[in-house]
Design brief:
With 442 residues, the protein is an alpha+beta fold. Among the domains are: 78 residues, Dna Ligase, domain 1, CATH 3.30.1490; 159 residues, Nucleotidyltransferase, domain 5, CATH 3.30.420. The chain has a five-stranded mixed sheet with strand order 3-2-1-6-11. Strands 14-13-12-17-18 form a five-stranded mixed sheet, sandwiched between helices. It contains twelve helices and 18 strands.
Length: 442
């Protein structure tokens, strides 16, 4: 029963929390069967700052997704971002006991586990260990070493590191909302899997995901992740500046940005004016669109320059590191008018807006393919890849009551239909160790 494989992506963002439930259809495309979103009040710049509010928002988003889909959620894949994320490069090797046997998954797993043991700064923890190229004995630049002969297996790794406390807080929120955490994924990686095509990853591409509180960057070249970074500001700083610059309240600033905002000041004439109602009987305020776009332009320019610096640090200007496919912009902030033109102007690279419809089923609602949901779609894909557990389609009435007398009988059929346990991937090992970590921290 392939069709019963259901997974849930939970995107805990600074402006919104989105829960997306989906499964794969017969063409291996993703069919979203439920989505719920809630305003995120307890997250600042991608990091949880108010546990209680975050738990409430998660519950609200999850309940909405459950009621739309009729599926009970108990396990989610969560994204992590924030200022504390950094990435580093590391190479490591193992010497194999028996060089006559071919290299298999276990060898790669041993090598990855070895990297997981790296000593980090106090309070930091490894989130992802992503192999780049392998080297077998003295043969370099191997993409897939499985099936080869060799005594020494070496690899370069892209290691993503985050703060233990921030990871734990996310885990705590998910757990307290009554959910299990099946995996934590770096948000830019999730967004990348949702909006980038394989050709772009081969040619070299930088994905810029402009969220409310953070701007995430993921750079691919030759099909492999080369660089990740999280820049600690996004769309919210633009709104704040409009609020300050025009002396209006945040809600109005956000609306102004979305409806009339543009990243290119030359567009608006001096005569274009928006009138904003004053508070409680005060006179309405008049704001020229030229001023508005000047404010937005200054902020956006700053964000893009920060990102461009990271792209340069990666080595975009070297012949080997050239990103032929340029830049893909996604996230809610990418919907700002004329943003693409400004990015092309500042960086001199081609840019496009990335919609997460690459892997969605053809008949998906239009809302879902909005750049807003790039991360959620990516997290959902991660969950489905992981060989999502089979969930029972739970109708509203058949929610199991632990206190009922037939509890044993009710729960039996569900347990029997569990799929056979598969060999754990190192990811699952990491998450199960994280779960133990959280349980012991209670």
């Amino acid at each position: 029963m392939e069709n019963n494989k259901i997974a849930i992506g939970l995107d805990i963002g600074t402006t919104k929390i989105a829960a997306m439930i989906g499964r794969k259809n017969e063409y291996s495309k993703i069919e979203v069967i439920g989505i719920g979103k809630a305003k995120s009040l307890g997250v600042k710049r991608g990091v949880v700052s108010n546990i209680t509010q975050t738990i409430q928002s998660i519950q609200q988003a999850v309940e909405e997704a459950e009621s739309v889909s009729g599926v009970k959620i108990n396990e989610v894949v969560v994204g992590i971002a924030g200022q504390h994320i950094r990435s580093l490069h590391h190479s490591d090797y193992i010497t194999r006991d028996n060089a006559d046997e071919v290299i298999d998954e276990n060898d790669i797993e041993n090598l990855v586990n070895q990297v997981h043991k790296l000593v980090m700064l106090p309070g930091e923890e490894i989130i992802h260990v992503l192999p780049q190229e392998f080297k077998v004995d003295s043969q370099a630049d191997i993409k897939e070493p499985i099936g080869m002969h060799g005594g020494r297996l070496e690899a370069n790794f892209h290691v993503v590191v985050g703060q233990v406390s921030s990871i734990r807080n996310i885990g705590r929120c998910v757990k307290s909302a009554g959910l299990d955490l099946s995996e934590i994924t770096l948000e830019p990686l999730a967004s990348a899997s949702a909006v980038l095509s394989q050709e772009e990853k081969e040619a070299g591409v930088a994905l810029i995901d402009i969220g409310g509180g953070t701007t995430d960057l993921a750079i691919f070249k030759d099909g492999i992740i080369r660089h990740t970074a999280v820049i600690p500001f996004g769309g919210n700083v633009i709104t704040d500046d409009i609020k300050e610059g025009c002396s209006i309240i945040e809600k109005q600033a956000e609306l102004l940005k979305i409806k009339f905002g543009s990243a290119w000041p030359g567009e608006n004439k001096e005569t274009e004016i928006v009138s904003i109602p004053g508070l409680r009987g005060r006179e309405p305020k008049e704001i020229t669109l030229k001023n508005l776009s000047k404010i937005i332009h200054a902020r956006v320019q700053e964000i893009i320059e920060h990102v461009y610096l990271e792209i340069k640090n990666y080595g975009h200007e070297t012949a080997k590191g050239k990103l032929i496919a340029g830049i893909v912009l996604t996230g809610g902030g990418s919907q700002l008018k004329h943003l693409r033109q400004l990015v092309e102007y500042i960086t001199g690279m081609d840019a496009r807006i990335g919609f997460p419809n690459e892997h969605l089923a053809g008949d998906s609602e239009e809302v879902l393919s909005s750049p807003l949901y790039a991360t959620a779609v990516g997290l959902l894909m991660k969950g489905l890849e992981k060989g999502a557990k089979e969930f029972e389609q739970v109708e509203e009435e058949t929610i199991i009551d632990e206190n009922s007398e037939n509890y044993e009988e009710e729960i039996k059929p569900i347990i029997e239909e569990e799929p056979k346990p598969k060999k754990k991937s190192f990811f699952e090992k990491f998450t199960s160790s994280l779960k133990d970590f959280l349980d012991n921290a209670e």
